[in-house]
Amino acid sequence: MSSIFNGDLDDFTLVLILFILLVIVGCSCDN
């Protein structure tokens, strides 16, 4: 998990983080 914050982000990790943020924002907007 620490390797994610070491600056060596790959495209898959970025897409995964963006998708998780989208889901969190979407759920909070639904409520």
From TrEMBL:
Positions in coiled-coil regions: none
Keyword Iron-sulfur set for record: no
Alphabetic keyword roster: Membrane, Transmembrane, Transmembrane helix
Keyword Transmembrane helix applies: yes
InterPro entries xref list: YjcZ-like
Subcellular localization(s) per the UniProt record: Membrane
Record field: transmembrane: 12-29
Family indicated by similarity: Belongs to the SscA family.
Name by which UniProt lists this protein: YjcZ family sporulation protein
Organism expressing this protein natively: Brevibacillus thermoruber
